[in-house]
Amino acid sequence: MLEFKNVTFKYSEDDFYMMKNLSFSVKKGEFISLIGQSGCGKSTILRLINGLEKPENGEILIDGKNINTLKDYCAFMPQKDLLFPWRTIEKNISLPMEIKGVPKSEMHKKCVDVLSEVGLLEYIDKYPKDLSGGMKQRVSFARTILAGSDILLLDEPFSALDSLTRMDMQEWLLKQWKHFGKTIIFITHDVEEAIFLSNSIYIIQDRPFEYMEKVKINSEYPRDREFLKNTEIVALREELINKLRNRREQ
Amino acid sequence: MKKSMPSIIVTLVLFIIWQIIAVKMNASYILPSPLEILQKIWELRDILIGVHLPATMGVTVLGLIISIILGLFLAIIMDLNEKIENALYPIIIASQTIPTTAIAPLFVLWFGYGIWSKVLVTILITFFPITITVYDGFKSTKREMEELLITYGASKKDIFIKLKLPSALPYFFSAIKMAIPLSIIGAAIAEWLGAQSGLGYFSKRMMTQLDGAGVFAPVVVLSVVAMLLVSIVSIIEKTLIKWRKEI
Ligand SMILES: Nc1ncnc2c1ncn2[C@@H]1O[C@H](COP(=O)(O)OP(=O)(O)OP(=O)(O)O)[C@@H](O)[C@H]1O
Ligand SMILES: [Mg+2]
Q1: How far is CA A29 from the centre of its chain?
Q2: Which of A96, A80, A52 is nearest to A155 (CA)?
Q3: pTM to 2 decimals?
Q4: pLDDT confidence of residue B247
């Protein structure tokens, strides 16, 4: 579904390349995590996919078509909730639909559907200031869903949450993923989070990186926390953490 | 109410001290006591409120409205276009180094004793804080929010209407609250320098008659009007901007 073909990129402000000839692909309906040390270029990959940055060389394809020729193919959810404080929850999640010109009556119906799905229907007329951190992330997720795209790009959506809320949100996200049937590319620097959530994990190498090591997690969904205690999974976790830490020391 | 108690007490104490000093000095042509001023306002209420206040308010309101329009216009075009920003910003800043009181007589020379010379002085004092504050409001928008809108396919116009305008709204209200007293000051100064009516003119006339309380009375009226207007704007602000945590 999503394919990087020999993508080379550097920020014009920087004098080093972020990635060179990077190729990888993601299948429809997959849950992929990207992990890597801070500053290695995880967010940059999402910025390339959503078109905020353009590759210097190479192509990014969706179903075989270059993204330059496409619109509305992906929806981006930033690390901070970035809810607009002057808009109610309904108006906030309507934002992408407003911009795409969805009719008003349809917007309201979709808002109600998605808010009941994320369990926040009673907050429909509240303002972001009235919500907790976890609720705001759920609203932000609802807004991302309502952008109406098949690929969701989630950039460390839970990193600002406390660890208990975070576990709830991870389980919640898996349910939502199954429910909406989207393809998800998820960034985190928490190895356990990546293992718990993903079909596969991509590990980002030192700059500039030319490939990303792919690790498959062979475990069926629905998953529960118990599975993180399996000996293979514990070993895998250690292995991944060591890999990331070794990179840091180099 | 509880919060404003200390400041009310301080104000009262200051007035009492003023009253005592003024009575001791017994030279009301230099320092009239607060009570004398109040008495004066009461005596002159018809002419102060009925004749001169409307004249001054005419200048203030015209100057304020034109300043708001001009300020918003400048802020918007500077935000839209970097070249315009580079061209205008230094000039706008420089316009504030002009000693307004010194060039106000020139305006009278050019535009006569009519209302426009006074409106011009008012605008010169008032448009600046509006322009700069609203401009800062536009610049205060978060880049990440703008990028998020772009990923939804937003146009420049979408970004302006859905992001820049609402983020600048609190700044706009601060600007208006700053601009109200300034425009009143501007109008009064202009009237001091050359006019046939208005509270500034009246104050000056009382000065030539060595009537201390008469000089103060219009100043007090103007201050009260400024405070009233600012509180009205604050009320509008609070009903419009419900989403803010601080308020
Ligand atoms: N807009 C930009 N302009 C120039 N350089 C940038 C820009 N954004 C990021 N960079 C550079 O690219 C590097 C990688 O940034 P990126 O945000 O992709 O990293 P990341 O892996 O997401 O890190 P983190 O885990 O801290 O979010 C940064 O170290 C920074 O120097
Ligand atoms: Mg990042």
Answers
A1: 13
A2: A80
A3: 0.84
A4: 41
Residue B167 near residue B141 (C-beta atoms within 8 A):
yes
Question: Please, are residues B43 and B53 in contact by the beta-carbon 8 Å criterion?
Answer: no
Question: How many CB atoms within 10 Å of residue B182?
Answer: 21
d(CA A11, CA A53): 8
Return the closest-CA partner of residue B224 out of B47, B48, B1, B6.
Answer: B48
Tell me what ipTM this predicted complex has.
Answer: 0.90
Pocket of ligand 1 (CB under 6 A): A 11, 13-14, 36, 38-44, 189
Q: How far apart are CA A2 and CA A67, in angstroms?
A: 10
Record the tokens describing residue B78, joined without a space.
């500077």
Closest listed ligand to the CA of A188: 1
Of ligand 1's listed atoms, the one at least distance from the Cα of A79 is 27
Chain B nearest C-alpha distance from A247 (Å): 29
d(CA B233, CA B243): 17
Say if residues A212 and A204 touch (Cβ distance below 8 Å): yes
Q: Could you identify the residue written with the tokens 């004249």?
A: B55
Q: Looking at the complex, does the CB of residue B159 fall below 8 Å from at least one CB of chain A?
A: no
Residue A44 CA to ligand 1 centre (angstroms): 6
Write out pLDDT tens, residues A15-55.
Answer: 999 999 999 999 999 999 999 988 889 999 999 999 999 99
Query: Could you please report the per-residue DSSP string of B4-37?
Result: THHHHHHHHHHHHHHHHHHHHHT-TTTS--HHHH
Which residue in the block uniquely carries the two structure tokens 């935000």? B79
Decide: A195 and A228 in contact? Cβ < 8 Å: yes
